[in-house]
Amino acid sequence: MKHRPTFAPLVCLIISAVAAQAGDVTGQWKSEFESPVGHLKYVYDLKADGAKVTGKAHREWPEGKTDTELKDGKIDGDSISFTEPLHVQDQDLTIEYKGKINGDEIKFTRKVGDFGSTDIVAHRETATAAPSLNGKWRAEFDTQIGKQKYLFTLHADGAAVTGKANAEIGDQKMETALTDGKINGADVSFTEQMDFAGQPVHITYKGVLAGDQLKLTRKVGDIATEELTANREK
Fold this sequence. Notes:
This protein is mainly β. The chain is built from 1 helix and 17 strands. A hairpin with a 2-residue loop joins strand 1 (27-35) and strand 2.
């Protein structure tokens, strides 16, 4: 008896590949659209783990910028959904997203509480658009003890960030190794353990990498919180 070749394994592989491609949402997605509160710019930083989707929404609107953790994220084939919880004008508001993935494009219906729905399109950011953290970054900023000048030397290896900070504070110069460094998409954080005037000072940095700028929030123990921008040295 002759055995006929079976194509079942090949068919399964093809189906699996198509399904994987349909569910490929990990990365950054940009969208701009008009809304009742003005022109909105979004970057959705998404990560898929099986049927679960997590991430952040980086939102720019006429009143400022916000970063929000996305909730209830799900993916099923080419269908995706999640919610964006906001606190606006002392009110809690939930924005619901339901969409379809088509290659490097997601077509969403965005429902803002009971205020109505808008159809928007988000486009995938290409890998070349994601800037590298590696290199030297200069910053100058005012503090409670006067102007400070910093040169951060940073290196990312996967999700880990290492480096050092060279600081000029008045007539003092110091170099500190950075610890607890992490990078997740565009989000960067690290810690500087400084010895200032014989006293240990714990300084934490959290920020967002945007091209040749690193926008950081700097928390100096329980003493002060400062905003600064470090520019890439070319």
